[in-house]
Amino acid sequence: MCISLGSWIPSKMFPIRLHMLLLAFLFGQGLAMSREERHKLRDQVVEMFDHAYQNYMDHAYPADELMPLTCRGRVRGLEPSRGDVDDALGKFSLTLIDTLDTLVVLNKTVEFEAAVRRVLKDVRLDNDIVVSVFETNIRVLGGLLGGHSMAIMLKKRGERMLWYQDELLHMAKELGHRLLPAFNTSSGLPYPRVNLKHGVGGPESRTGTETDTCTACAGTIILEFAALSRFTGDPVFEVHARRALDFLWEKRQRNSNLVGTTINIHSGEWVRRDSGVGAGIDSYYEYLLKAYVLLGDDLFLQRFNIHYASIMKYISQPPLLLDVHIHKPLLPARTWMDSLLAFFPGLQVLKGDIRPAIETHEMLYQVTKKHNFLPEAFTTDFRVHWAQHPLRPEFAESTYFLYKATGDPYYLEVGRTVLDNLNRYARVPCGFAAMKDVRTGSHEDRMDSFFLAEMFKYLFLLFADTADLPFDLEDYIFTTEAHLLPLSLSVAPSSAATLGNATSEGEVDDTNFDWTCPNTRLLFPDPAYPRTLRDPIRSAVDKSCPRPLPYREPGMGRAPLRAQDFMANNPEHLELLRRMGVSLIHLKDGRVQLVQHATQAVSAVAAEDGMRFMQEMMELSSQQQKEQLPPRAIQIVSHPYFGRVVLTAGPAQFGTDLSKSSTGVSHESRVVTARADQ
User: Fold this and answer.
1) ∠ at Cα 532 (527, 537), nearest 5°?
2) In terms of pTM, does the model score above 0.85?
3) Is 135 one of the catalytic residues?
4) Which residue in the list 376, 437, 444, 608 is annotated as catalytic?
5) pLDDT band for position 573 (cuts 50, 70, 90)
6) Measuring CA to CA, which residue among 376, 377, 553, 355 is closest to residue 448?
């Protein structure tokens, strides 16, 4: 049975000569990291976590999330709607629940005990609010179960939580029952949303009219629901999760053995027939493999192996992972990739398929180095497609798993890069802010709960020693939200006997599939092997998308114009605009309008600079509108006006920031004295 990374052959069985070669290679390449340096990075992770967590507790709690730019909590209904993103918010202190087991991993058991007491005292799960079934399951139910797992572990050791009587588990069971109405469909696939108080259907629930859900939304339930059933002895949760998985398996495309991205929850028809390993499908595959690890049911591994063979046949084009059509799997569905697929190398490590994991991870790392973060989507030539980056943890997750599998210190350096970029570009006084645009470095007033639940957990584990952990990590499995569930649940009472498999597996030939996880140490007879896989990919990315250098206007020796520096009466600035394809139009009311035509730029690089300039200008304008500062009356009191002239004034949206000038505002003959009144 594939249990965990700890089941591999111990290193003492290695030939000594191979150890010597490995050490010689690592030191020869300058990649080995000293224990002191690792511990310094480990401590840096803890400091960064403290900065994010304490700012959430100081400025946001009991709100669901922290808004790090404005230093306040995000409360649903009080802030402008962000659409589906807000479905994760249920007025249940989301970030605190999502962070519970992270506190224990980082050895903050005192803070964990205090956090559990806060959850038990403050959090309600019966709010009249519509939430995402998927997000609530992986973040809140998973967070409560992970917290419960840590609480019973600490209590058993007699160190902390001696008062604990399964209170978090009781909350988890209540939440599970509040999610169950979503599964009341003929197919067994859950509705995408549920009202925590009123369920699904009826005017009070304000939901239940949806017909579609994503494959991952319906297929990422089994770990949490099965754990809840086995912790409580109530099989109803595992039964519903298995039924949903059975239906998805039944509806796979039988020739390609792939699934689509969106499915009708009533008819089972595929609404979106593109198939990949990123957004919309990702954790469905993850949960098939991990359900086998946690529950020990061969059926899940069999299904995963069949899907995985098709992924590697049709979707994997090393180092790329490109969506295809499920009915025509040789036909690409799009020419870009989304950042959520960054989890896949980590899943390949658990599968034991290390070579493509190394290749895809290296591609992702090179894209990260080009743009400081993984853009939310990027093209096959590694340029930005969607520029946002909400501080997603999937790349750090795969980095951790590859380091555990290979022991290659190269991945420690990758982790250092992630840390440095977070501190340099995302850190703000009240936490860490999501990137609105990786090209400009602009921020979004957002720090999602998964940042605390996952990012710091994987980075800490990357740099930590086994002795740094208050428990044996090999006794647990990570959910897709990095919550910890004990592997001992595999021997807990199971509801599988009551299910009766909904589908027949007899028609599938799986004789060529591995039924165990290989010992990855045996995959590297040559210590240089991982490097031989990485180098060609690094070169390919560099050729397709060279790292952007500060743009210099020909013959002018300066960087591209930034929006905050622009002055409409500066001839040099106007010339820079012209070269970037930006036109300036003077309106009758005195305002100026900027319009960009990329085809009129002097080069493709100049056109990109023009687009960046326009985005910065729109952000400045939007920020000015949000401030809603009233006009100010400027009364000139100096000679010869003596207060008889009053002007209306407002803040400039661009131009020199006079507040940062050391010399102030001067005039050739004399300084005009003015008084500003609100």
Assistant:
1) 145
2) no
3) yes
4) 376
5) confident
6) 376
